C-alpha cells in the first residue's frame, strides 16, 4: 500500500478543510442577493448606458466584495488589514480619492458659462436645499445628526462629496451612501424630467435666454483663485474638495500647464474613478449592506434628489419675479443646480428642446450645474465643520 | 521520510492559520470606572466595574481562549514566554463565549475577580491620573496582538473607543460595550446639535445661509468684475473704432491728394507694395498640420483573420 490509512484520513481531513474554505461552503443568501445587485448594476451600465464609468466598477466591486470566503488571516478581504483591497480602500476610508476626483473635475470643467452669467451661482446654491431637506427627514427617522448629514449629502448629487463627508462623519454607512449617491446620479434622467415638467408652465418652458457674453482669459484665470479664497476663507473645512477643484481649474485655465491639466482630467481621474468605484462596491458586503438602514438611506436619497430639483426650479421661478423682461431665466435650468455634471444640464437642454426645438439651454444650464459642484462642496464643508 | 516532512509541513500550515486568526483580535473600547461608580454595564453579579472590549475584526469565527490581557508594561521587555505569562491574565478555555463569530465583540471586566467567570481579569483598572497601558497577547505569550495606552486625561464617565482607525473619547450615554462603536464626529458637538436642534431647522437655516453667502459673494465679485471688463472692452472697442476712423480719413486724404512718392516713380512704388504683400501671403502655406502619413504594410502580425473578436465582414458584393 503506497499510502497508509492514517495518511489517507489526513488527506481526507485536509480536503474537507479545503472545501470549508471555498465560496460554496460559505455562501449565504445575502451574498447571493448582493451578487445579483452587482450584476444588475453592470447590466444597467452596459445595456442601458447609465453612468457606465461608475456603475461597471461599482457593480463588479459589489460582486467582488460578496464572494464568500472563510477568513484565515490570508489578508485577501477588503476589511482585512494589509490586504491589497484594504490598501486600495484606504483611499475611500481616509478620503484621498474624492479630492483627487475633484482635481480632475476642476481640470475638465469650463466655468465660462457661470462667469458670463454669475447670477446662476444663486440657482446652484438654491438646489442645495435638497441636502438639508434630507437632513431634516433623516433626523425624523431617528438617525444621529452625523449620520443624517452623511446621508443628506446624497442630495448634492455629487458622489465624491458624499464619500468624503460620510467617510468623516458616518463611515459605517459609507458603502450604502456611496452606492445610493451614484445610483441616483445615474437615474437623474429618470427622476428630474417629470418634476421639471410638473413645476413649469408652457410659457415658462418657452423662455429664450439671451446669449451669454464672451469671457476673457483674465476672468477665467481669476475665477479659481477668487473662488478658492472666498469659499475656503468662509468654510475652511471644505478645503480638501474646494482646494483641489480650483487647483485643477487653474491648471486648465492658466494655459501654461496643459500637460498637468490633461493628466488630472484624464489618466489620473480614470485611475481614481476605477479604484474608488471598485472599492466602494466592495465595501457593500452583505452583512453590512443588507440592513434596514440601507433601505432608509435609499428612500432618503430619492427624497433628497426630488427636493433638490424642486428647489432649483422653484428658485428660478421666484428669481424671475424680480428680473426684467428679456433677462428672465428659463426655469428648466433650475434642475441643473444639483452637481451631476453635465447630465443635469443635458436634461435641461432636452426638456427645453421638447418645448421649442430651437431653444438650446445647454450652455445656460452649465452655469448652475458647475455652481452646484461648488455649492455641494461648501455644504459638505459646513456640515463637517459643525459636526466634527 | 517524505511523508513525515509533508505532515510536518501541513501541521505547520495549520498552526500558522490559527495564529493568523488570533491576529484579528483587536482592543476596541476601554472604560475606566471611578470608585463605586455604576456605569450601567453590569457583570453576572450585578456589579459595575472597568472593562475592556475586544473585537474579532475578521468575518469568520475565531476563539480567543488562552490569549492574555495585561496592564503591565514590563511584558514588552525581552523575557521568556513563561515569565511573561506570569505578568498577564489568561482568558480561560472551556466556555463557549470565547468563540467569537466574525465582527463579534467580547467585554472583559477588569476588576481583579478572576474567580467570578472567564469574563474577569486578575488585574484592576483604576483611574490613576497616569496613562494606562493595556496589551493583548496571543496564547503563546510571545506575539503581541494589540496594545493601547489610555491617555491620563480621560474624563470620568467617558470611554476610550476605536472608531475607524482612530481612538476617540466617547461620553457615557454613547458608550457601546459588546457593540460596534458607531459614534463618529465630535461627540460633544453632535450631542449639542441633537439636543438643541432635534428637527434640523437650525442646521438648515445656518448651512443654507452660509452656502448662499459664499455663492452670493462670488456672484457679486464676478458681476462687478464682468461689468468692469465690459466697460474696458467698450473703451477698447471705441479706441479701435477711432483709430480705424483716423486711418480711413488718411485714406480719403491720399485718394484725394495722391501718394507722396518722394521722387520714386509711382508704378515702382505700387509694385514694391504689391511684392511685399505677395510674399507675405505666399508664405502662409508654411503652416503645416504636422501629421505624417505612414504607408500601411500588411503582415501576418496585423492579419485580421487571426483576430478572435467579431469584425465587420470583408465581403464586398460584386453586383
Can you put this structure into words, describing what you see?
The complex is a heterodimer of chains A (388) and B (319). Chain A is mainly α and 388 residues long. Chain A has one domain (83-387). Chain A has 22 helices and no strands. Chain A is elongated. Residues 12-19 of chain B have low confidence and may be disordered. Chain B has five helices and eleven strands; from the N terminus they run αββββαβββββββααα. Chain B is α+β, with helices and mostly antiparallel strands and 319 residues long. Chain B has helices spanning 2-22, 81-86, 187-196, 201-257, 266-282, and strands at residues 25-31, 51-56, 62-63, 68-70, 89-90, 99-100, 105-109, 132-137, 144-150, 158-163, 166-171.
Average pLDDT over all residues of chain A: 90
Helix percent of chain A reads over 70%
Question: How would you sum up the major sheet of chain B?
Answer: 5 strands, antiparallel
Mean pLDDT of chain B: 80
Largest sheet of chain A: none
Oligomer: heterodimer
Structural class of chain A: mainly alpha
Task: Indicate the topology.
The complex is a heterodimer of chains A (388) and B (319).
Chain A: H1 5-21, H2 23-26, H3 29-47, H4 52-65, H5 84-93, H6 97-108, H7 112-116, H8 120-126, H9 129-140, H10 145-152, H11 159-169, H12 174-186, H13 188-199, H14 202-205, H15 217-234, H16 239-253, H17 258-265, H18 267-282, H19 286-289, H20 292-322, H21 343-355, H22 362-387
Helix pairs in contact in A: 3-4, 4-18, 5-18, 6-11, 6-16, 6-17, 6-18, 8-20, 8-22, 9-10, 9-20, 10-11, 11-12, 11-22, 12-20, 13-20, 13-21, 15-16, 16-17, 16-22, 17-18, 21-22
Chain B: H1 2-22, E1 25-31, E2 51-56, E3 62-63, E4 68-70, H2 81-86, E5 89-90, E6 99-100, E7 105-109, E8 132-137, E9 144-150, E10 158-163, E11 166-171, H3 187-196, H4 201-257, H5 266-282
Antiparallel strand pairs in B: 1-2, 1-10, 2-7, 3-6, 4-5, 4-8, 8-9, 10-11
Amino acid at each position: 500500500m503506497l499510502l497508509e490509512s492514517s495518511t489517507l484520513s489526513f488527506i481526507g481531513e485536509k480536503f474537507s478543510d479545503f472545501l470549508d474554505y471555498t465560496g460554496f461552503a460559505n455562501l449565504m443568501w445575502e451574498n447571493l442577493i448582493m451578487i445579483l445587485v452587482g450584476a444588475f448594476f453592470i447590466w444597467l451600465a452596459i445595456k442601458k448606458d447609465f453612468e457606465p464609468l461608475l456603475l461597471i466598477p461599482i457593480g463588479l466591486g459589489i460582486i467582488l466584495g460578496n464572494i464568500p470566503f472563510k477568513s484565515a488571516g490570508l489578508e485577501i478581504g477588503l476589511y482585512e488589514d494589509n490586504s491589497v483591497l484594504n490598501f486600495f480602500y484606504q483611499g475611500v476610508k481616509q478620503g484621498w480619492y474624492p479630492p483627487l476626483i475633484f482635481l480632475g473635475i476642476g481640470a475638465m470643467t469650463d466655468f465660462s458659462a457661470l462667469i458670463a452669467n454669475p447670477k446662476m451661482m444663486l440657482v446652484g446654491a438654491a438646489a442645495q436645499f435638497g441636502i438639508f431637506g434630507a437632513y431634516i427627514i433623516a433626523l425624523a427617522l431617528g438617525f444621529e445628526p452625523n449620520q443624517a448629514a452623511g446621508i443628506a449629502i446624497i442630495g448634492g448629487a455629487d458622489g465624491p462629496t458624499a464619500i468624503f463627508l460620510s467617510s468623516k462623519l458616518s463611515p459605517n454607512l459609507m458603502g450604502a451612501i456611496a452606492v445610493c449617491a451614484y445610483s441616483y446620479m445615474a437615474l437623474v434622467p429618470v427622476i428630474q424630467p417629470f418634476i421639471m415638467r410638473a413645476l413649469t408652465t408652457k410659457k415658462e418652458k418657452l423662455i429664450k435666454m439671451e446669449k451669454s457674453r464672451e469671457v476673457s482669459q483674465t476672468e477665467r484665470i481669476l475665477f479659481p483663485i477668487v473662488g478658492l479664497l472666498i469659499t475656503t476663507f468662509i468654510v475652511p473645512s471644505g478645503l480638501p474638495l474646494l482646494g483641489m477643484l480650483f487647483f485643477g481649474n487653474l491648471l486648465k485655465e492658466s494655459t501654461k500647464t496643459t500637460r498637468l491639466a490633461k493628466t488630472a482630467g484624464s489618466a489620473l481621474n480614470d485611475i481614481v474613478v476605477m479604484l474608488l468605484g471598485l472599492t466602494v462596491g466592495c465595501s457593500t458586503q452583505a452583512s453590512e449592506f443588507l440592513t434596514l438602514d440601507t433601505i432608509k438611506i435609499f428612500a432618503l436619497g430619492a427624497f433628497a434628489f426630488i427636493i433638490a430639483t424642486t428647489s432649483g426650479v422653484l428658485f428660478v421661478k421666484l428669481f424671475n419675479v424680480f428680473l426684467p423682461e428679456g433677462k428672465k431665466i428659463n426655469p428648466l435650468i433650475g434642475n441643473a443646480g444639483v452637481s451631476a455634471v453635465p447630465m443635469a444640464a443635458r436634461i435641461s437642454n432636452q426638456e427645453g428642446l421638447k418645448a421649442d426645438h430651437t431653444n438650446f439651454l445647454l450652455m445656460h444650464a452649465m452655469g448652475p450645474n458647475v455652481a452646484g459642484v461648488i455649492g455641494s462642496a461648501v455644504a459638505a464643508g459646513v456640515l463637517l465643520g459643525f459636526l466634527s | 521520510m517524505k511523508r513525515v516532512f509533508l505532515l510536518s509541513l501541513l501541521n505547520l500550515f495549520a498552526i500558522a492559520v490559527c495564529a493568523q486568526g488570533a491576529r484579528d483580535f483587536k482592543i476596541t473600547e476601554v472604560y475606566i470606572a471611578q470608585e463605586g461608580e455604576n456605569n450601567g454595564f453590569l457583570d453576572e453579579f450585578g456589579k459595575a466595574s472597568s472593562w475592556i472590549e475586544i473585537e474579532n475584526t475578521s468575518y469568520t469565527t475565531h476563539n480567543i481562549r488562552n490569549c492574555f490581557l495585561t496592564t503591565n508594561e514590563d511584558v514588552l521587555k525581552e523575557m521568556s514566554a513563561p515569565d511573561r505569562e506570569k505578568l498577564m491574565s489568561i482568558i480561560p478555555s472551556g466556555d463557549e463565549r470565547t468563540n467569537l463569530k466574525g465582527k463579534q465583540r467580547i467585554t472583559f471586566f477588569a476588576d481583579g475577580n478572576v474567580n467570578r467567570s472567564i469574563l474577569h481579569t486578575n488585574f484592576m483598572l483604576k483611574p490613576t491620573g497616569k496613562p494606562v497601558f493595556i496589551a493583548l497577547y496571543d496564547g503563546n505569550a510571545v506575539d503581541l496582538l494589540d496594545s493601547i495606552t489610555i491617555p491620563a486625561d480621560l474624563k470620568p464617565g467617558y470611554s476610550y473607543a476605536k472608531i475607524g482607525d482612530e481612538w476617540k473619547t466617547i461620553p457615557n450615554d454613547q458608550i457601546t460595550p459588546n457593540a460596534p462603536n458607531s459614534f463618529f464626529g465630535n461627540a460633544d458637538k453632535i450631542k449639542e446639535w441633537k439636543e438643541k436642534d432635534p428637527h434640523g431647522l437650525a442646521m438648515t437655516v445656518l448651512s443654507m445661509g452660509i452656502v448662499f453667502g459664499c455663492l452670493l459673494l462670488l456672484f457679486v465679485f464676478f458681476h462687478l468684475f464682468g461689468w468692469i471688463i465690459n466697460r474696458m472692452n467698450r473703451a477698447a472697442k471705441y479706441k479701435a473704432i477711432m483709430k480705424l476712423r483716423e486711418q480711413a480719413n488718411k485714406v480719403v486724404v491720399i485718394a484725394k491728394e495722391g501718394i507722396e512718392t518722394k521722387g520714386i516713380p509711382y508704378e515702382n512704388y505700387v509694385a514694391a507694395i504689391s511684392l511685399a504683400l505677395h510674399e507675405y501671403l505666399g508664405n502662409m502655406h508654411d503652416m503645416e498640420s504636422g501629421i505624417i502619413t505612414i504607408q500601411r504594410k500588411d503582415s501576418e502580425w496585423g492579419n485580421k483573420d487571426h483576430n478572435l473578436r467579431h469584425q465587420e465582414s470583408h465581403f464586398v458584393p460584386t453586383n
